[in-house]
Amino acid sequence: MPKSTILPIITVVSNLNRWAWFVVLMLLCGSVSADEPAPAKQQELRNLLKHDCGACHGLQLKGGLGPPLLPEALADKSDVLLLDTIQNGRPGTAMPPWKSFLTVDETNWLIRLLRQP
């Protein structure tokens, strides 16, 4: 098969894998009712949000290297998009994947926290 034919096939398969992951995340978001993290874990997650996320998004989350994470800035973004962004990062940007450090439930809890006024 010529290289010109293989590259589009690889691109489609690569995109399918990303979309398959996206669909799995959507299903998890819709079907799993996560318990609240323990109070100590909640504090750990708040510290991570302030210090680790704040390093790029600003200590008050008003933006910096990364965009603002205030409720009004996130209003037009779905939970699924935010979950995918946090868990998998944003290729081509400074946003790293956090799935090695955060579970899906912890990420969903952070998203709920970020949406609070």
Structural summary, described in words:
It is built from five helices and no strands. With about 120 residues, the protein is mainly alpha-helical. Helix 1 packs across helix 4 and helix 4 (about 80-90) packs across helix 5. The mean pLDDT is about 85.
Secondary-structure map:
Blueprint (H helix, E strand, L loop, with lengths): L2 H29 L7 H19 L13 H4 L4 H10 L15 H12 L2
Helix pairs in contact: 1-4, 4-5
Brief overview:
63% of the residues lie in helices and 0% in strands. It is mostly helical.
The overall pLDDT, averaged over residues, is: 84
Beta strand count:
0
Largest sheet: none
Helix content: 55-70%
Indicate the low-confidence ranges by residue numbers: none
Strand content: under 5%
Order of helices and strands: HHHHH
Structural class: mainly alpha
Radius of gyration: 17 Å
- Roughly how many Å apart are the termini? 56 Å
> In the CATH classification, which architecture applies?
Orthogonal Bundle
